[in-house]
Design a protein that fits this description.
One of its GO terms (molecular function) is flavin adenine dinucleotide binding. The protein is 31% helix and 0% strand. It is mainly alpha-helical. It starts with 26 loop residues before the first helix and ends in an 11-residue tail after the last helix.
Length: 59
């Protein structure tokens, strides 16, 4: 923290159901994830058919 390199990121494997780990990611990372999702899943199948969990649409 004293060097300014500490990130307040919640890792998905460590997150509980009431936490939103994607919301703790830097905006640049979220933007990149959204770009990748748009490229490889333009119909948003993996966002719509998965009923719960850590979804980009909830971040």
């Amino acid at each position: 923290k004293t060097r300014g390199s500490h990130l307040e990121t919640i890792y998905m494997n460590d997150a509980s159901r009431d936490q939103n780990p994607l919301a703790s990611y830097p905006e640049a990372n979220l933007s990149r994830l959204r770009e990748i999702a748009q490229k490889y899943d333009p119909g948003r199948v993996f966002q719509v058919l998965q009923n719960d969990g850590f979804l980009l649409s909830k971040a």
